[in-house]
Each structure stands twice: as structure tokens, then as C-alpha cells.
Amino acid sequence: MSVLPSLDRRILAIALPSIVSNITVPLLGLVDVAVTGHMGGDDGVSSSTSLPASYYVGAIAVGGMLFNIIYWMFGFLRMGTGGETAQAWGRRDLDGVVLLLVRSLLLALVLAIVLMALSPLVRDGALWYIAPEAEVASLARTYFNICIWGAVPALGLFAMNGWYIGMQNSRFPMIVAIGQNLLNIACSIFFVYALGMRIEGVALGTLLAQWVAFIIALLLCLRYYRRLWKRKSFRFPSFLLLLRQAVTPGTASNRQNFSLFLRTLCLIVVHFMFIAAGAAQGSVELAVNTLLMQLFSIFSYFMDGFAYAGEALVGKAIGAANAGLCRAVVRRLFQWGGGLAILFVGLYAIGGESFMSLLTDDITVLDAVSRYRHWTLLLPICGVASFLWDGIYIGATSPRLMLWSMAISMSLFLAGYYLLIPLYGNHGLWIAFLSYLACRGMVLTVTRGKILP
Asked: Whole-model pTM?
């Protein structure tokens, strides 16, 4: 029993800063919407050619969605780096720790350059598929053309944050995330209201904040981990060798990255088919699903924090060949996760309706929400295991099993999508989504013996 208080402190030391980092993300989106939502006729920066505020809000929504999808697909830079770094740190492979960061940053740089080179095709193809109004498309194109120059720091931060998590340090990513979001908000407001810019001001605020955050993350690394870089025994391989190791498809790291990439594609398919199914049923069902998914997002902010703790601590324990600690971490994570799941079920049951009324005052939507709200009570129960096992499997560097779990769960979702929605409408959609969540956790639970010592 004596190990539990110490273990709890180690778990919370990683989980809590990660939760704070996650919570800052929606704040930025709200401010961007608020800034663009006042770009109409009485915003103080309008001109005779000013467009309605809805066009600017729509452009931010479209542009933001494009970058969310694009960068989401490169999440393997964070996940792959985190698991490998945690194991290297656990076995005290100090050279490996440093080289993992350098190779991840080089891979991020190469991918960012490729992405920027292909950006006109990505932009135009996405806008063709989404097909917004001409004015919204023009504004979204402007937003995209500016923000794409942030691909290097955006992908670089994925690598840096994964490395920090692997080093059992989630405080630095929290500091960087808070600083980035506050700077983004301040710059967007300054560019729009002080300099009279419009959508360009919001985009430049995002771009500047990304570069400053990336530079701060690098400086923190160079300052607080300088002993890793300055050891007399450490020698950097040649740049070309590091670059070849970073981009060669056949390496173990890049095979893992590819599995994580495919897993993310499956995840994107599920979430976008969920949105599309709501939209196909009408604006009310779309609004209901959007509002109810906010409850899932809040739960995910907390569970991701504990998943990061699992990634860091399990990876370190496996690297140190400490099977007892590994099993203790897993047990304690599920105790924390189970407690949080019960807590969120209670919060959703007691305060879910009041929270919905804060998000909208549309009586029609609120009445429809009451018909589906019971499904949200199952979200924490069905989702807790999938979040925790994801972090544990990343720490164990077993993305192939994660991919199989996601592929099986996506197949179950698609079966429910096509079989249940025609029978039960939006209720069928929620049954399919909850089944997908539960299946992810169940498959990873069944295969846990392949990764845990």
C-alpha cells in the first residue's frame, strides 16, 4: 500500500497539467468565433465593402476544420515519440533520448515541407468538397494561405510535446499551450481591432502564436535538459544519417508511425460519419448531436490527461524492465478512470440539462436534446477503457494492436450506421457510436497480455 500515494503523485503530476493544456484549446476557438462574429457592420473596423459577420464565422469554421483534420492525421508525431522516449528514459538510454527528439523534429520538418508544397491541392480539393458559399470560400482560402506557414511549428510541437511526455514532464507542454493560446487571443484582438485587419488578422495571430510557442518549447528543452546535450560521451551522428533514419519507411519507428497514422484515419472516418449522419437527419438532429458531443469532449479532456500519464509511466516502467511497477500503474490508472467515469455520469445526470441551456436557448433544440440525453450517461462508461488503454499501448509502443482495435471498432460502427439508423434514426446513430467506443476498450483489454510484462 505504501507505493500508492507516491504512484498517485506521479500519475497526477502528468495528468493534471495535461488536463489544463486540453482545456485551453476550446477557449481559443470561442475567442476566434467571438472576434469574427463582430466583423459585421458595427464592429469598428468595417468598411463599405464589409461582409456579414456570418461569412467570417463560416470561414473560420471551414479553415479551422481543415487544419484540425490535417494536423490530426500527423498526431503520430506526438504519440510515437512519447512512447519510445518513455522507454528510452526508463532504461537510461540518454543518447537514445536525445536522438529520438532530433529524429522526430527532422521528420516533422520534412512532413511540414511536403504539406506546404501540396497545400494548394489540399486547400482547393477540400473547398471543392465542402462547397461553401463563394464569399466564405474566398475568406477561408485567405485564412488557409496564411496559417499553412505554421505547419513547421505545429508539427514540431507535436514532436516536442510527445518527447516531454516521454520524459515524464507535462508541465512544459502546459506552459507552452497556455502561452500559445493567450498570445493567439491577444494578437488576434490586436490585429483586428487595433490595426483594422479582418480574417487576415485572426490568421496572423494564429501563425505568430504557433512560431513563438515552438521556439519557447525548444528553448525550454535546451535550457532545462542541457546536461543531455553536453555530456562528454555524447556524439551527434551526421545530419544526413539522422535525416535518413527519420524518413526511411522501413525503420521500426516509422512502421509504428504508419500504424498510428492509419488508426487516426479510422478515427476521423467515424467522427465525420457521425457528423454527416446528424446533418442528413436535419438541422435539429445535427444541433442536438453537436451539443451532446460537447459533453463527450469535456470527458475526453480529463481522460486524455490520464492516458498521457499511462503513456509516460508505463513506457518508463517497460524500459526499466520493472514489471511490478507497470502492473501497479495500470491498476491505479483504471481506479482513477473508473472513479472519474462514475463522477461524470453523476454530473451529466444532474447538470447536463442546465449545461445544454447555457449553450443554446432554442426551445426546439432543447426539447430534442431531452430525448437523446440519456445516451450521454453511457459515454463515460463506454469510453473510459479505450482512453486509458490507448495511453498504455502507446507507452508500450504497440500501435499495431491499437490499429486492429480501431479497425474492428470502426467496422462495428459502420455496421450499426447502415443497419440501425434506418430503423431507429438518431437513436441508432448513438447506439452505433457507443458500441464503437466500448468495442475499442474491450479489444484492447483482451489483447493486454501481449504488451504487459
From this structure: 0.90
